[in-house]
Write a structure and sequence with these properties.
- Monomer.
- This is Glutamate--tRNA ligase.
- The termini are far apart.
- The chain has four domains: about 220 residues, HUPs (Rossmann fold, 3-Layer(aba) Sandwich); about 90 residues, Glutamyl-tRNA Synthetase, Domain 3 (Glutamyl-tRNA Synthetase, domain 3), CATH 3.90.800.10; about 55 residues; about 80 residues, Orthogonal Bundle (Arc Repressor Mutant, subunit A).
- The strands form five sheets. It has a three-stranded parallel β-sheet, with helices on one face. It has a three-stranded antiparallel β-sheet with strand order 4-5-8. It has a two-stranded antiparallel ribbon with strand order 6-7.
- It is mainly alpha-helical.
- Helix 6 links the parallel strand 9 and strand 10.
Length: about 475
């Protein structure tokens, strides 16, 4: 992609540009969600760019989590992924243009000299910054070029006026140019640096709106000045507040944040994740639960919050439970089936039509598909193992005659819900018992726990053969 391949400027074009130096977590994905949503809401384009110039820390595994996570959430880009390491020739081409126009100059100040300069400035309570030793000015005599030293290239930042933008989150921001020193835009080996590469990418990819975390606010005035030097208009900026973890710290891998794909493996629904993440910094009145389609119809940049949002896993589980309850039984069964297969249940056994009905029976009790699969498993497993505590509490010697009578009556019972309920009532009447006295031990023996939905519905789905075998195994 080169600058000549630009789209129509009026069309919204956003981007997500993660660095694959750690596994992408929910705070990162929230920064991807809003540019994706804005592009979808406006009929624009969403571009994925992998900023992989940190060769020591970047990894393919981290790239895979980015791609898998976005695919799972249905946040697929219209273009990309583009990789910065594959665009080095383009960066050097633009660098040469800036150098030829006098916007860039070589600087031979060593790292040791810079460190000593910073120490002196800090001791004098001054802001540490490059002092412009090698910056060419009319009438200025530069020091002699040291032998055998490869220079860095610095951008000649304007020294007067202000750089300003109307941030869609933070409002008007103005920075005096004399507060900015001359940025290094190429290392001694000629490799361009982050702030320069970002500008070239945003320029070539015709990005109209840069929606990113507010840790980039300090980079923005430098990037705007590079845009101006290249004769290009700056994008619209929106700097999103930080996402905090449950301890109130910035969400990061170091602070225990999980890779986004782990939520997929833990049984969260992509629709619920979109819903929850959307509310971490944006709102539509008091609406808490909404679909992806509603979110994209409602989303704009005017209702982004200015305050840091705090992650709350209990709230995420609640949101997930609401979406899970609203899903069709067939759709849930399609998500639960692969989990059961991983647990050793044959695909042929899952084709008997019971799984959607099992999902319907238990989905109101579950907050993840993993929890739903835990329930479903006992209906397909060859055997179950109730806890010793449940057995001791409910399957007592006193109830044994009633259990034997129920098992005998079930032998000739038509195996459907109403017949099972009628058989239960007959045995309860004959034994002089109330429903919980018999139903709870039956539940423990047949599905492993005393607390389930309607016992007749549960037994019908377990199946006659399994119910009889489990009632007799005590």
């Amino acid at each position: 992609m080169t600058e000549q391949n630009l789209s129509t400027p009026a069309r919204v074009r956003t981007r997500f540009a993660p660095s694959p130096t750690g596994f992408i977590h929910l705070g990162n994905i929230r920064s991807a969600l809003y540019p994706w949503a804005f592009a979808r809401a406006t009929g624009g384009d969403f571009i994925l760019r992998i900023e992989d110039t940190d060769l020591e820390r970047s990894s393919q595994a981290a790239v895979d989590v980015i791609l898998e996570g976005m695919d799972w959430l249905g946040m697929n880009p219209d273009e990309g992924p583009f990789y910065q390491m594959q665009r080095m020739a383009r960066y050097k081409e633009v660098l040469a243009q800036l150098q030829a126009a006098g916007h860039v100059y070589p600087c031979y100040t060593s790292v040791a000299e810079l460190d000593a300069l910073r120490e002196r400035q800090m001791a004098a309570k001054e802001k540490p910054r490059y002092n412009g030793t090698w910056r060419p000015e009319p009438g200025k005599v530069l020091p002699p070029v040291p032998e055998g030293v490869q220079p860095v290239l610095r951008f000649k930042n304007p020294q007067e006026g202000v750089v300003a933008w109307d941030d869609k989150v933070k409002g008007r921001i103005e920075i005096r140019n004399d507060e900015l020193d001359d940025l290094v835009i190429a290392r001694p080996d000629g490799t361009p640096t982050y702030n320069f590469c970002v500008v070239v990418d945003d320029m070539d990819m015709a990005i109209t709106h840069v929606i990113r975390g507010d840790d980039h606010v300090n980079n923005t005035p430098r990037q705007i000045n590079i845009f101006k030097a290249l004769g290009k208009e700056q994008p619209v900026y929106a700097h999103l507040p930080t996402v905090l973890n449950e301890q109130g710290e910035k969400m990061s891998k170091r602070n225990g944040a999980k890779p986004v794909t782990q939520y997929r493996d833990e049984g969260y629904l992509p629709e619920a994740m979109i819903n929850y993440l959307a509310r971490l910094g944006w709102s539509h009145g008091d609406d808490e639960i909404f679909s992806r389609q509603q979110f994209l119809e409602w989303f704009d940049l005017d209702h982004l919050g200015r305050s840091a949002a705090q992650f709350d896993e209990a709230k995420l589980r609640w949101v997930n439970a609401q979406h899970l309850k609203a899903m069709s039984d067939e759709a849930l069964a399609a998500l639960v089936a692969p989990q059961l297969e991983k647990r050793g249940i044959a695909a042929a056994d899952l084709a008997d039509g019971r799984l959607p009905r099992i999902c319907a029976l238990f989905k109101d009790r579950c907050d993840t598909t993993v929890a739903l699969a835990d329930w479903a498993y006992v209906f397909y497993a060859d055997a179950i193992s109730p806890s010793a505590e449940e057995l001791e509490k409910h399957v007592t010697g006193a109830i044994a005659p009633a259990l034997d009578a129920l098992a005998a009556a079930f032998q000739s019972c038509d195996w459907e819900k109403s017949a099972i309920a009628a058989t239960f009532k007959q045995v309860l009447t004959a034994q002089g018992l109330k429903m919980p006295q018999l139903a709870m031990p039956v539940r423990v023996l047949t599905v492993g726990t005393a607390h389930t939905p309607s016992v007749d519905a549960v037994l019908e789905l377990v199946g006659k053969e399994k119910v009889l075998a489990r009632l007799q195994k005590r």
